[in-house]
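FAQ

Q: What does a record look like?
A: Structure on top, sequence underneath. For example:
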């Protein structure tokens, strides 16, 4: 039986400096890989910064966390409160470690999604290793988060790419 691998790419173009310039999501039959890239200052090329594998259960948890965050964005915009809240936790494995060992719980990293709402209605959502200052992905724009949700749901940022895979 052939395994189907769909690669979906989204580019984030925005004025604010973020933790990543580009995010890719590759969805396979039993694994989803999320990779971040930064644009090189000396060329137009991108360099891989981090790559993680999520299993089906952890992918579901992340998707639910993104949906919850979208609801909280609307609430924060309405109520204009400053708060910080953990949205969800899920386990990932670094891509290279997964390729070498497969899934081993001792090599898994617990990730956390944190929502930070501000009194002016703005927000910041970070996905990072639990109890770490290092940030894997940062969202400060609702459209960026919606685009990420679409990627996790198997939709592309580019409708032409979706049409190719439908054929």
């Amino acid at each position: 039986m052939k395994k189907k691998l769909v690669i979906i790419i989204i580019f984030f173009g925005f004025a604010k400096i973020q933790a990543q310039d580009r995010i890719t999501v590759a969805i396979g039959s039993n694994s989803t890989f999320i990779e971040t890239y930064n644009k090189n200052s000396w060329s137009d090329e991108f360099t891989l910064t981090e790559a993680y594998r999520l299993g089906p259960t952890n992918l579901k948890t992340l998707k639910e966390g993104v949906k919850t965050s979208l609801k909280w964005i609307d609430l924060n915009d309405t109520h204009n409160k400053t708060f910080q809240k953990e949205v969800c936790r899920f386990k990932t494995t670094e891509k290279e470690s997964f390729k070498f060992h497969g899934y081993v719980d001792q090599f898994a990293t617990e990730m956390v999604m944190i929502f930070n709402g501000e009194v002016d209605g703005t927000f910041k959502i970070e996905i990072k290793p639990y109890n770490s200052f290092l940030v894997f992905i940062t969202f400060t724009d609702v459209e960026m988060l919606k685009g990420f949700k679409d990627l996790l749901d198997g939709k592309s940022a580019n409708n032409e790419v979706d049409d190719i895979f439908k054929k």
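Q: Is there anything notable about this one?
A: The chain is about 30% helix and 35% strand.
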